[in-house]
Amino acid sequence: MSEDPDGFRALREYRVTLPDGVIADIAFVLCDLAQDTSSSQFAREQKARAYGLISILGPVDAPEYPIIWLQHPDHIALTLSDEDADLSADLKLVITRYLPLFFAEVAPLAPELARLKLKPSVPEATIH
């Protein structure tokens, strides 16, 4: 997961320990909206200002396919593949904690991401 694939503007990887003790490798990618890929086309159709991918390795319940994150004017949306089940509470928690860190680290490339104030859309909930 450490090589920068074509069309990716930034890639950061984190090794985390989930609450159940499982080690997970999570990669966040900032993608280029101008690229001719199915994910960039999807992001443009959704009127995203920026978008990227999240890949998780390690947990048995990790999604098989990358999660697409989309930046909208007032929120971030996550889209899973139709083939993947919903994210577990532990994986939602990890994404909630590490996505703002990723945005801060890529701020030189995408300053609008660092300015976002991320919070759950439902009180006392994680990303859903």
UniProtKB/TrEMBL annotation:
This is Uncharacterized protein. It comes from Enhydrobacter aerosaccus. The lineage of its organism: Bacteria, Pseudomonadati, Pseudomonadota, Alphaproteobacteria, Hyphomicrobiales.
